[in-house]
Amino acid sequence: MIVYRFPKDRLVYGPKQIVARINQDTEISRQVSLWDQRGSQVIQGTLLVIPVENSLIYVQPLYLVATDRVGLPELRRVIVAFGNQLLMEPNLEAALAGLFGGRPPETGPTVATAGRPATQERTTEALSREALDHYRKAQRYVREGNWEAYGAELRRLEQALEDLARRP
What we know:
Elements: H1 15-24, H2 26-35, E1 40-44, E2 48-52, E3 55-66, E4 74-82, E5 85-89, H3 92-100, E6 110-113, E7 116-120, H4 124-144, H5 147-165
Antiparallel strand pairs: 1-3, 2-3, 3-4, 4-5, 6-7
Helix pairs in contact: 3-4, 4-5
């Protein structure tokens, strides 16, 4: 078991508070209401809680499924919450870019991070793509019921998001 301790002088939202914020957001509610009409159903995916330094990033996928036929739900949007920010974007990469800013220069100084050799610094775009890849793999492992691989992908996603959060 891992215990995370957060600073007492700063508000860190919990999962129930994030779900309430998502449900109360006018733009998200409006879009969900439009999709959740005759012939389709909106499915809110599992809310992922990812610790990043002294805060949390929440990621929740929204799926759309046609009610008149059998098929897999289609990923329509990804909701991401970090601090006071709440975004809904078409994919995780766009949501993370919205949270952490625009594109930095394509190259940067050489850096070394814990447990990783010194390499050319990865761009925000590359880190966002990496995080999205880990997120998609984690979702696939959930569908397959492979909880060990799911946990490993969540740890990799957490590392990619931590790397993003450390960017200036």
